[in-house]
Specification:
With about 160 residues, the protein is α+β, with helices and mostly antiparallel strands. The protein has 5 helices and 8 strands, in the order βββββαβββαααα. InterPro entries: NUDIX_hydrolase-like_dom_sf (IPR015797), NUDIX_hydrolase_dom (IPR000086), NudJ (IPR033713).
């Protein structure tokens, strides 16, 4: 049986407050880069749960998704390792809640609020072209209701150990 190609499913949060966007400055294989709070979908969680978790882990801020800005597909080939990955990223907007006193995820140097102009000025330091595309789509008012996302109860019924075996 041949291997079936599968994209890597990720989530991202466009977190805006009073015209500023919350980004993370992170260490990557390509050096220090800016990105929205983002990460991989974990077993036994919905996309909405994943984006709330990633926002908390990377920024220490609560995040409640209220809309889906878009679904972005991109391909990344590491200049350093040659690894070829296709990402399918679900990007959400929502309510930014309280900040907690907790350490940030490994590799995250800091969470930083930036204006649109500040983000544009450091485009060469963005993790991907999707960083600005997500914000542009958010500012253009692109939204899909969360009701478009359906998570069947079977997702939550599978023991975590069974997914790795």
């Amino acid at each position: 049986m041949s291997d079936i190609w599968k994209p890597s499913v990720t989530v991202a949060a466009v977190m805006e407050r009073e015209g500023r966007f919350l980004l993370v400055e992170e260490e990557t294989s390509e050096g220090v880069r800016f990105n929205q709070p983002a990460g991989h979908l974990d077993p036994s969680e919905s996309l909405e749960q994943a984006v709330s978790r990633e926002a908390m882990e990377e920024t220490a801020h609560e995040f409640t998704p209220t809309g889906l800005i878009g679904i972005y597909m991109s391909r990344y080939v590491s200049a350093r390792t040659g690894k070829d990955i296709t990402y399918l990223s679900f990007t959400f907007c929502g309510e930014v809640g309280a900040q907690h006193d907790q350490p940030l995820d490994v590799g995250i140097l800091r969470a930083v609020w930036m204006t649109y102009d500040e983000m544009m000025a450091c485009r060469d330091k963005h993790r991907s072209p999707s960083v600005m595309q997500r914000v542009d789509d958010y500012l253009a008012g692109k939204r899909m209701p969360l009701s478009y996302l359906i998570t069947h109860s079977s997702v939550y019924d599978v023991p975590h150990e069974a997914l790795n075996g």
